[in-house]
Amino acid sequence: MDSEVLTRTAFSLLDDMQKSGKMNMFGAAPHLCMYLNKYFDVKISRQQCRQLLKQWMEFKSYWAKLEQEAV
């Protein structure tokens, strides 16, 4: 899986986790690793999962700021 597809897949999984409301997103990295390893057969380190989570949070923050400015 190339890096762009991995990022899109991870962001989609993180969006689903957030929508479920069942976890604090600051603790989502281990769950992200488990899903990617188990269901997508992607071997990824915890550090990489934490980095993807950080990127996702930055992306969400960026869009939230844009939405605020548009109102």
3D shape: globular
Number of beta-strand segments? 0
Strand content: under 5%
Enumerate the spans where pLDDT stays under 50 for 5 or more consecutive residues: none
Number of helices: 3
Element layout with pairings:
Blueprint: H1 3-20, H2 29-39, H3 46-70
Helix pairs in contact: 2-3
Structure, explained:
The protein has one domain (3-70). The protein is built from 3 helices and no strands. Helix 2 packs across helix 3. The chain is globular, with a radius of gyration of 13 Å. The chain is mostly helical.
Compact summary:
The protein is mostly helical.
List the defining traits of the structure above.
71 residues
